[in-house]
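Title: Request for sanity check on ATP synthase subunit b prediction

Description:
We are preparing a figure and want to confirm that the structure record we downloaded matches what your pipeline produces today. Could someone re-run it with the sequence below and paste the raw structure tokens into this thread? We only need the token string, no images.
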Amino acid sequence: MEFNATLLGQAITFAILVWFTMKFVWPPLTNMMDERAKRIADGLAAAERGKQDLEAAEKRAGDELRKAKQQATEIVMAAEKRASQIVEEAKETARTEGARLVAEAKSDIDQEVLRAKETLREHVSSLAVAGAEKILRHEIDKAKHAELLASIKAEF
């Protein structure tokens, strides 16, 4: 094999090309690839963080939903309890009002009984006076007098 100047020139040119490529071309290419790898890694990390944030948000949403359901159940139970309290209060009010009305009616009945008794007394006294008048109109006879008193007693 013969080495000549062409082979030596090609070797020097190749060495200059390798040096030029390593000095001026390779570093920007390496930087671009590193930046792209970094952007891809950042994007993957952001996607992972987003996925974790989504899972955390779903968990928080589930917790909030459970809390809201629990609060709604508590509110419904409180409303039912209050409704039963209102019903009981209404029943008690009705009982009290009924008792008051019954007492009022009894009082009215007692007053009516007293008025009836008073009317009856007046009636009896007027009958007694009428009987006395009849007795006095007739001749005074003990037998007739006793007979009239007995008939008046029998009327009552």
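Thanks, this matches our download. Residues 9-112 form one domain.
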